[in-house]
Protein: Polysaccharide pyruvyl transferase family protein WcaK
Amino acid sequence: MRTITLALLWHSMNSDNLGVGALTLSNAEILRSAAAKAGVKPHFLAMSWQDPRPEYGEWDDIENLHFRTRHIPLPSGPLANGLRRAHMVVDIGGGDSFTDIYGPKRFFTIWATKLHALRMGKPLILSPQTVGPFDTGWAKALAKWSLKKSKLVVSRDAPTTAFLTEMGVTENVLEATDVAMRLPYDPPAPRPEGGPIKVGLNVSGLLFNGGYTKSNQFGLKAEYPELIRRIIRFFQDQENVELHLVGHVQSHEIAVEDDHRVNEALAEEFPGIIVSPFFKSPIEAKSYIAGLDFFMGARMHATIAAFSSRVPVVPMAYSRKFRGVFGTLGYDRSVDCKSDTADEIMAGIEAGFNDRAALSAEIDAALTRVDERLDKYTDLMAEEMRKAV
Structure:
């Protein structure tokens, strides 16, 4: 059987952000299925920054190639050499980083790697992700050029598809959904009747600390730390509820981003709370979340872990990507921390908790749409693999 080498650009096997890790492991799982349909054997080059944490595990078909910013313009080095080895470049852009809202340096970093691949003549696939916005004319022009040059651009939600259409990018676009819906996990063991209702709350360390500026950088309407304390008090007042604080960005080095140390501080403030472990991998995190009875949180991939393991969930949005992903699937239980008051957010959470059976039915219906969308993505990737080898 022929081997196809796939450069997984902006995929990471050791990111502190377990959402990025979930994208990586899930996309590899989907691409294995596509390769089987194409009759080829995949070999993956996971290409991104080197983070301090240990890698999530070992997979025989995944090779880790780390690069630095200084390597991006070079004609040789870890980035260029990795791209040169690949039959195809599969770029997920970290899920939502192909935009200029994070500043020109980050935009050029993400865009220049696409330029590298295209100049080498490699087929460039943009895996399911949020694209845009592009607030500057030059960024929009550069982005449009690379989008039109790509073999396939896969949107993960309807707002992204509409944005691409506005840019004039329509001929090579597929609308799918977030690949992390396919992240493997260990299903929970059956629990005896009459046990506590296990509720999970993901607290974003970044939002709790006010963002990188530490002054409500993301423009939340409600005062986030007080909102979190209000949620905790509500669930501690419920009968037979066991509250778990679940981190999904866990970093020993970057305190402002770290969910785990915020959870530990809250557990000291509110005795009786259970703090989730420092997870070794996104799979371990999803397996933990899958054992809960209700979940809410501001890290989107923590809520996707709940949703895709059929745990009733209320996503606590702070950007359009939440409503894009969940709303496109017909799941409208998100609350919006940028536009909703604390009372409105609490009402949404309380309604979701009290109506968990209805949320479960809505998730079951939405997951049928997930399968349809990701199956189309798998089929198109199989077709591109046949062409590339």
Notes: The CA atoms of residues 34 and 381 lie 6 Å apart. The two ends are 11 Å apart (CA to CA).
